[in-house]
Design goal:
The chain is of the alpha/beta class. It contains 17 helices and 19 strands. The strands form four sheets. It has a seven-stranded parallel sheet with strand order 3-2-1-4-5-6-7, with helices on both faces. Strands 12-11-10-13-15-16-19 form a seven-stranded parallel sheet, sandwiched between helices. Keywords: Membrane, Oxidoreductase, Transmembrane, Transmembrane helix. This is NADPH-dependent 1-acyldihydroxyacetone phosphate reductase.
Length: 662
């Protein structure tokens, strides 16, 4: 096909098996006069498109070789790709504590990594022509995590975060990026979920029937017909200025409402809907004299309510659930928002003996970081603290503090089993788990080293999930415990150049929201901690990751000038100076919160009988809460200016003037 203005837009759609959204989109694009390339892992699964005049190609989004072959074939025949729709994906229904990690990784390979690899293959061609549209298919559950489907929800939350950053990073090249979040749409996803469903649960055996019902929940009578959905989507994507975000399908109205509910109300509604509004009785194997008893709680003056907590949207504010002391049935007390103040102090002894403090396990405790400061604060509060890091010698600061130190690599299941086993063998329990270990990476998405990007997810997301799976069953057996997952303010607001870090933290946020409810029947409390800018000495230890600058554990750390690999950038070479200027700002500037103050306030919250559901703490948190209220067009304009992405680049020499498609 010649690249002439008289030809319709060239559209490439992934995940086009019969009966799905992708297949319907291909037919709708074809009816609108577009040249359509439909792709799927198995071309024979696209029999419905056989006689429609639509080109069909084999493409497995989890295979870089398959992606290169398919994109190369389209470019060789059509000369360009005007619209890319990243629709390929898969679901998985299972409780987080007992989910099969192999199946869970397959979901991320299709939903997140497949999207990113397709973007890296197609975006440079669009950027060279200064024209194109990329549509990433997310989901309404990427905004509000779905119980029993948290792996799917967190993968889609990561896609949402990636898309927000990509929209800004491709802005200078006149490439438009759209996030499509389907609600309930008639498709084959329910049948696929049911086919992958495994009901061999242990901890969650009482909920097996409810979990099975979750596999087909999107295919009820309120689901939107696929052809109607596809026509409306195509109409939007063919506009000169398509919307940045749009939700379409059944239950979208409910999602829009729920996004602005306070967390206590959202949790209560979801717990009722998914049969999680009752506490399970303690198991028979509980220690003698402990059956049916709650952990002993000692409280001193209560913190007051921070007024700013009442001004922010529900997904960015700390809320907690108030329960009457000793209540063994579903919570009925009215919940109220809360967060920290400097007044008051609380201490919780989560043990059956008042003479022994809570046993705390913290990951990622290298000197100078948040984890190290948390260990010191927990120890100062009378807790028995186990500090962990990949290299025990990196915890020299904790040498004489009376804190136990253990080697633990959160990316290694064997290392996790050994460390958790050692703590349980010595202390007999774990009362508080703080999943703090993490890693950052700074690079533009289109030119990112995917091996290094995967390392970020291994530490930030999979490390958190593997620690939960190792510790939560022991807490569940005791019907007591607190899990704190460390996210980031970047998980709420994705930033250019740090999109992989942001999307990994967005996935952690989504996972935590679902985990909080899935563990509610076992009396386990789950808190999301989202640090803002916190001062530390880790900028002195920034290491080079491959050919790109990386840092541990925060994306806010500066990049030494000599370690910024600007010679590796091609498409983004004009932005190297601006990128360096932004990320060289030290985290220990005058506005950063001191790490020891941060740690003391976090520990005070975690030692409360009912810690907040979410806690945002650190510098610039108030600014984040304000920005989250802004409309997307205003947010994009401000961030583009801050990151020097507000000026379009000229069309490179050699590009034909007739190549642009509006």
């Amino acid at each position: 096909m010649a690249s002439t203005p008289s030809c319709g837009p060239v559209v490439l759609v992934t995940g086009c098996s019969d009966g799905g959204i992708g297949s319907a989109l291909c037919e709708a694009f074809h009816d609108a006069g577009c040249t359509v390339y439909a792709t799927a892992r198995r071309p024979e699964s696209m029999a419905r498109l056989q006689g429609a005049g639509i080109r069909k190609l084999q493409l497995d989004v989890a295979s870089p070789a398959s992606i290169a072959a398919a994109v190369g074939a389209v470019l060789a025949e059509a000369g360009r790709i005007d619209i890319l729709v990243n629709n390929a994906g898969m679901g998985l229904v299972a409780p987080l504590v007992e989910v099969d990690l192999k199946k869970a990784r397959e979901v991320f390979e299709a939903n997140y990594w497949g999207t990113l690899q397709m973007v890296q293959a197609v975006a440079p061609h669009m950027a060279a022509r200064r024209s194109g549209t990329i549509c990433n298919v997310g989901s309404v559950v990427g905004y509000i995590s779905s119980l029993w489907g948290a792996i799917y929800s967190s993968s889609k939350a990561a896609v949402h975060s990636l898309t927000d950053a990509l929209r800004l990073e491709l802005r200078p090249f006149n490439v438009k990026v759209v996030l499509l979040a389907p609600g309930a749409v008639q498709s084959n996803i329910g049948a696929n979920n049911l086919q992958r469903f495994d009901a061999a649960f242990n901890l969650y055996a009482p909920f097996a029937d409810v979990i099975r019902e979750r596999t087909v929940i999107s295919q009820g009578k309120n689901s939107m017909p696929t052809d109607l959905f596809a026509r409306r989507v195509v109409k939007q994507l063919l506009r000169p200025a398509p919307p940045r975000h749009f939700m379409l399908g059944g239950f979208v109205w409910l999602t829009r409402m729920a996004m602005w509910w306070p967390l206590w109300l959202r949790d209560r509604m979801l717990a009722n809907a998914f049969k999680l509004n009752r506490l399970l009785p303690p198991p028979e194997a509980t220690q003698p004299g402990q059956q049916g008893k709650k952990a002993r709680i000692g409280i001193v003056p209560r913190p007051t309510i921070h007024a700013s907590a009442l001004l922010a949207p529900s997904h960015a504010v700390a809320f907690k659930r108030q329960l009457p002391s000793g209540l063994e049935t579903a919570p009925t007390a009215k919940s109220r928002p809360s967060t920290f103040t400097s007044a008051g102090a609380c201490r919780l002894a989560m043990t059956t003996t008042p003479s022994c403090g809570p046993v705390v396990l913290v990951t990622g405790c290298s000197d100078g970081g948040i984890g190290s400061a948390l260990c010191e604060a927990f120890h100062g509060a009378g807790c028995v603290v186990y500090a962990t890091a990949r290299r025990p010698e990196s915890m020299a600061r904790l040498q004489g503090a009376g804190i136990r130190k253990l080697p633990l690599d959160v990316a290694s299941p064997a290392s996790i089993a050994a460390a958790v086993g050692a703590v349980l063998a010595e202390a007999g329990r774990i009362d508080i788990l703080v999943n703090n270990a993490g890693m950052g990476l700074v690079a533009p998405l289109v030119e990112m080293n995917l091996n290094k990007a995967r390392e970020v997810f291994e530490a930030n997301y999979w490390g958190t999930l593997q620690m939960v799976q190792a510790v939560a069953p022991h807490m569940a057996a005791r019907r007591s415990g607190t899990i704190c997952n460390v996210g980031s303010t970047a998980g709420f607001l994705s930033m250019p150049w740090g999109a992989v870090y942001s999307s990994s933290k967005a996935a952690v946020h989504s996972l935590t929201d679902a985990l909080r409810l899935e563990l509610q029947p076992f009396s386990i409390k789950v808190m999301l901690l989202a640090p803002g800018v916190v001062a530390s000495r880790l900028e002195d230890k920034v290491r080079e990751v491959g050919s790109y600058p990386g840092c541990r554990p925060s994306a806010y750390l500066p990049i030494p000038r000599q370690r910024f690999a600007d010679d590796e950038l091609q498409l983004y070479a004009p932005f190297a100076a601006g990128l360096r200027a932004v990320f060289e700002r030290p985290s220990r500037g005058k506005y950063a919160m001191p790490a020891d103050l941060f740690a003391r306030r976090v520990v005070k919250q975690l030692l409360r009988p009912t810690p907040p559901r979410q806690l945002l703490l650190g510098a610039f948190v108030q600014l984040l809460l304000l920005v989250l209220w802004w409309p997307l067009w205003l947010r994009d304009r401000v961030l583009a200016k801050a990151f020097k992405l507000d000026r379009p680049l000229p069309i490179p020499c050699g590009t034909a003037c007739g190549q642009r498609v509006v």
